[in-house]
Amino acid sequence: MTDTPSFQANRWRRFDDWDARALRLDKFAVEDPENGFSAFEGAADPEPSLDIVDGRIEVMDGIPATDFDMIDSFVAAYHLDPEIAAEAMAMPSQTLARMLVDMNVPREELTRLARGLTPAKLAEVVAQLNAMELAFAYSKMRARSTPGNQAHVTNAKDDPLQLAADAAVAVALGFDEIETTMRVAQNSWANALACCIGSAVGQAGTLFQCSSEEAEELQIGMAGFTSYAETVSVYGTESAFVDGDDTPWSKAWLAAAYASRGIKMRCTSGAAAELLMGFHEAKSLLYLEARCLCLQRGMGAQGTQNGGIDGAPLAGSMPGGVRELLAENLLAVWLDLECASGNDARHSESDMRVGAKILPYLIAGSDLICSGFGSILKYDNSFNPSSFNGEELEEFLVLQRDFEADGGLRTIDGSSALALRRQAIDALSFVLKDLELAEVDETMKQSVAVASGSKETQTLDSRVITEISRRVAERGITILDVMRALHRGGFRQEVENLLFLLKLRLSGDYLQTSAVVREGRVLSAVNDPNRYQGPGTGYRPSAARRKELADIRDVLNREDVLRFEATLESAEQARIEYRHMGQASPGTDRSEVVVGISPGLGTKFFQTLAGHPLSTLLQTLKRGIEDAGGVMRVVRFAHTADTSFLGLSAARLSGSGIGIGLQSKGTAVIHHRDRLPHNNLEIFSNAPITMLAHYHALGANAAAYAHGDSPAPIFVTGDGEALGARFHARVALIYAIETAMTYDEAVPEEIALHFKEPAHD
Amino acid sequence: MTDRDFSAADYPIAERRPETVRGARGKTLDDLNIEAVAQGELEMEDLRITPQALLRQASIARSAGRAALADNFERAAEMTSLPQDEVMRIYELLRPGRSRGKQDLLDAAETLRRQFHAPQLAGFVEQAAAVYEKRGLFRRRY
């Protein structure tokens, strides 16, 4: 840096640093209840109320029955249970709020009361909970005990080969459900075919949906390709609903239609949808969502996908917006609905905001923590990037491990990932050929198998993909045709896996609330109910699951550390010899600097954390001492492995009273014989960023102290790297090994260094 | 044992009461095997859920305290007898602005009641007709 810095500025430059953060790409909105920008307190939110006369609802939330809009009418007819309403509505909101966080109040009692509460009352109750209480109540109230997760499987080319491969990987990662959608609407049947086959590779039971136009989605389901749907969107104002081209009755009709075809269905709603559509009626996000959720329960949907969804970034722009997302998820589970709790549309550019947002869901657990975790790269996510995507998958795995919280996922190793991808591609390619849909060559297969994302693939032409989709639809190809083709190709296991899921359709077991399939069994709120009642109850990872959560990639152990060091040993032996000269005695040379080395230095460990061979380090140190007119003497200690005590012990043996303590990982200290152990002259504690020039200067300074001079201390500066995270596991293992080599009666040993090759910089 | 006798104790039916499960053409779970697939003995009808299965799930849902879900399964049980085109035709009529007036929906309800023996669906559509009239939802939008 030769430029002369300019001090001309009209603001503190820290603001420049802040401006450069990804966070500043997020735009925040001022609270403005009149215009719909309010998470909890809309300008026109009604006071909770309910008047029932002769079993008929006369007034609900301040609105007389004669003025009910279609949402009020539906909620009054299908959600509110008049037999419970009088009791439930009479309870103070604070009492209900406290019951939600009281582990002694059973979940069933609260879900019973919810059937008698109006939207405004429900909203008023959950609004009383702070973020921690919301997460706790969510954990207590969610319907199924075992948490799960859902993946997005899409790509920017609608490439069926990649869809199949990515679906197989998503299954292996542990996702309970996978959801696809298209860039080009016409490709829906090709997407469905590809994901369906991919999801049957490796294991059976992963539910699959193809998000498409309502009528087509139902047809794809009836052809047997998909097993669930979650595109049945509902809205909290009548105008928004009509703008969405539906009514509560048309959506409820669809709910029954999916069930009548044996297909699992959940609704979609979430904060800020009405605001985005321009029909918010000056109501808060939470109140409008409470209306949506009462509708969904009333129409007999088993569950919901809520918590912002597409509106999450807008909700996140408001004060309390992220707390509101938690509150609306809590409302869903309080109403006894399965909850796919959002965390799909990425609400922020800031990784830190995203990480903070996921935490309550991860530690509370959720039926589906993400209603769309991008199992593919961000640019391949056709729904738009999720909170977590292929890029951040390992971060999620580590968060599970950190908190011992079950986020539904597990690690996948490189070789099985590739094998699964190849199997899925081979299976799909065979079906495409067998059913005369397309020909796939070996280059395409291999390029997709190894590709991280669609930018790297050399695959089917986009016109061919559209043609595949058109032919599947026109020829009325069903899952039976696909299974027969797979059977002809020898993909017997994949046929078994597909058949397993189709057979589940007949019993209807996975239509019940919060149903997923785990290890060949349907788990739902019926046979795996959440019965949390305080510590020691509710969902706890089993010993096997805990082990799975801990099993991430590249975990160090003591053997790994020693094995790595052993690979360096022969190279070091070619460069240096540590000659044992017997017990070391106190020196008399006033210019000497004694270097006290640790027990493992050069015997078990051969390079510093910064990667310098210890031979080079010692040669550099020697040159530094000699360049400043000193003499280096080396002594090995085995009574301690601690830098400070190595340094002080060395100083006590030194004719000048100056010693250097040196650990094998490169940590060093300059000490004086009259100082207290931890009150050294200079310390070099950041071995990973300590360069040879620093060791040279360290040697020179030690020699200067020996001459009675006061040299300028050396600063080892870094860029603020999180060195602890990078090195501490290794450091602790190295230090533990060295400490185990120490013994009380050890005497200092004089070492003569013999360098076998010339010094180099 | 009738469909209404099923409760949470019989759930999952495929695990606890597999012998009671049938496809729409009467095939058992054991009949649905890989050899049957390979030999082309199966049709999509064999993989269709029956009204009985839906009524059993309704009964299970009710026993677990989920009456609204049970009602939906009961509507779905009625809907199994509707061909896909009819399901979509009535869905379309229920969307805003699709019916010209209340009578379209009342006619649909009548069809559901008489032709498909679906009284719950019929009542449901009639209720929609009343609300749509009150809220002016028959207005054409495009």
TrEMBL record, chain A:
What InterPro entries does UniProt report for this protein, alphabetically? Answer: B12-dep_deHydtase_bsu (IPR010254), Cbl-dep_enz_cat (IPR016176), Dehydtase/Dehydtase_re (IPR003208), Diol/glycerol_deHase_lsu_sf (IPR036999), Diol/glycerol_deHydtase_lsu (IPR003206)
Q: Which domain of life is it from?
A: Bacteria
- Domain Diol/glycerol dehydratase large subunit stretches: 11-559
Q: What is this protein called?
A: Propanediol/glycerol family dehydratase large subunit
From what organism does this protein derive? Fodinicurvata halophila
TrEMBL record, chain B:
Instruction: Tell me any Pfam family this protein matches.
Output: Dehydratase_SU
| Protein name as it appears in the record | Diol dehydratase small subunit
